[in-house]
Amino acid sequence: MGNIKKPRGTIDIFPDEMGFFRRIESTARDTAELYGFGEIRTPTFEELALFKRGVGEVTDVVQKEMYTFEDKEGRTFALRPEGTASVVRAIIENGKTSDAMPLKYYYLINCFRYEKPQAGRSREFFQFGTEMFGAKDASADATVISLADMIIRRLGIKNVKLHINSIGCPECRPIYRQALTDYFKSHEGELCDTCKERLNTNPLRILDCKNPECAKIAKDAPNTVDYLCDECKEHFETLKEYLKAQNTEYEVDTRIVRGLDYYTKTVFEFICEGIGAQSTVCGGGRYDGLMEQLGGPSLPGIGFAMGITRLILAMKESDSLPYDMKNPTLYIASMGKEATAKALEIVLSLRNRGIYAECDICARSLKAQMKYADKIGASYTLILGDNELATGKAQLKNMYNSTQKEIDINGIYEALSNEPMML
Ligand code: HAM
User: Fold this and answer.
1) Mean pLDDT of the chain
2) What are phi and psi for residue 297, nearest 5 degrees?
């Protein structure tokens, strides 16, 4: 029998790569808090009905990509494919709709979609997302977009562009949808099989089909922005003004329709060149009908989510650095059992006082220990052997300039505290 492997489309993350995750997570948290968002966490699985009703029955996510299972009592659950529907459910269920508006939440979660894995696309993936409720003005859209933009800039990501569009509301979208259906019907024979189906279920999705034939036809399709009702048009024009006022660069891209059903009015994506086909590092938009659709009061909402592995690809493409792994302040090399016991005692007392220290736990030769100390970038080293134990004195070596200093073995903390690299 062969070795057991991880499930297809999942990832193992080691400390090197974790440095990127940590930088993204801390930057995202800090920046979201600058905008007054608080962290929320919801369950990894929810009732399947939540995503069917929230994300939409005819979306690819719900129709093809859900990980569903029955529990021991025959109830059907799904691993979350995204965060928005769960946040809305949590707000309704916990009565948060009577809190002061706007409500502002952010989350760092894993999500699950049964998709074909490729660079930037996996079956378990990680999202940083935000959701804001109770603010219907275009200034809320501009604020949320500016938060996403600031996070991306703070991560040092270059070659990224903000694409915005408006897909209207329940009043104007049916008219646009009809115009789109009429247009694509006249080209039905040239569409791919999936798009032929979409013609009846969700014609807007034909606009972002990657099939070259479909893309060619979509090029001359009617544009959403030409069909907006007065209110949606006004909202979109105001958003553009606000984005200009806050110096957020954007381009209007009428092909941005998004893959989830709950969107109304503003939709946007940050697209990064140079990271392959899965180039959308952030996607979001307004969803003014979702709260009501899930049984809550009528409360407008807007938010976005960023794919963390895609952000990492973009950071690497921009030569941006991960969060620094800490180097140990002190490495104690030891020879013999007694010296190892002393080393363990010292290292623990230093760790108790907040100093990152290491000692040999592999019973290696002195030469191998010193090589290891160098490899992990210890700032200082100390060698403990019979002689040092007998005299109570040892040489503290500064690894950057190779100078040595005799110190008292029982006064290492004090000695380190006075060292230049500790100040
Ligand atoms: P989404 O566009 O489905 O939107 O996903 C948001 C982001 O998650 C994508 O832009 C991408 O970076 C990342 N992503 C999606 N699927 C995968 C995957 N299979 N592998 C790796 N990364 C992936 C949403 O999820 C909405 N809930 C966003 C939102 C929040 N809209 C309003 N509020």
Assistant:
1) 95
2) -70, 170
Residue of 87, 105, 143, 260 best suited for mutating to test ligand 1, as the one with most atoms within 8 Å of CB? 260
pLDDT grade for 180, boundaries at 50, 70 and 90: very high
DSSP 303-356: EEEEEHHHHHHHHHHTTPPPPPPPPPSEEEEE-SHHHHHHHHHHHHHHHHTT--
- Nearest-angstrom CA–CA distance, 343 and 73: 55
Nearest to 236 by CA among 202, 264, 205, 269: 264
Given a contact cutoff of 8 angstroms between Cβ atoms, the answer to whether 28 and 126 are in contact is no
Alpha carbon separation from 334 to 337, 364, 370, 385, 390 (Å, rounded):
8, 9, 10, 6, 14
CA distances from 5 to 1, 8, 125, 141, 309 (A): 12, 8, 18, 43, 21
Nearest CA to ligand 1 atom 25: 82
Mutate to test the pocket of ligand 1, among 112, 127, 128 (most ligand atoms within 8 A of CB): 127
Smallest CA separation from ligand 1 atom 22, residue: 307
Which residues are paired to 283 by β-bridges? Answer: 269, 305
263 residue type, one letter: Y
pLDDT tens string 121-156: 999 999 999 999 999 999 999 999 999 999 999 999
Task: Give the predicted TM-score (pTM) of the model.
Answer: 0.91
- Compute the distance between CA of residue 62 and CA of residue 46 in angstroms, rounded to an integer: 13
Task: Sketch out the chain's domains with CATH numbers.
Answer: 15-172+228-317 (3.30.930.10), 330-417 (3.40.50.800)
Q: List the beta bridge partners of residue 272.
A: 160
Residues in contact with 365: Cβ distance below 8 Å, sequence separation at least 6, in sequence order: none
Lowest average pLDDT, out of 200-209, 248-257, 307-316, goes to 200-209
pLDDT in the model for residue 103: 98
What digits encode the pLDDT tens for the residues 107-125? Answer: 999 999 999 999 999 999 9
Question: Which residues does a 6 A CB cutoff place in the pocket of ligand 1?
Answer: 82-84, 113, 115, 120-122, 125, 127, 129, 131, 259-260, 280-285, 303-307, 309-310
Helix axes 308-317, 15-34, angle to 10 degrees: 100
Atom 15, ligand 1: which residue's CA is nearest? 307
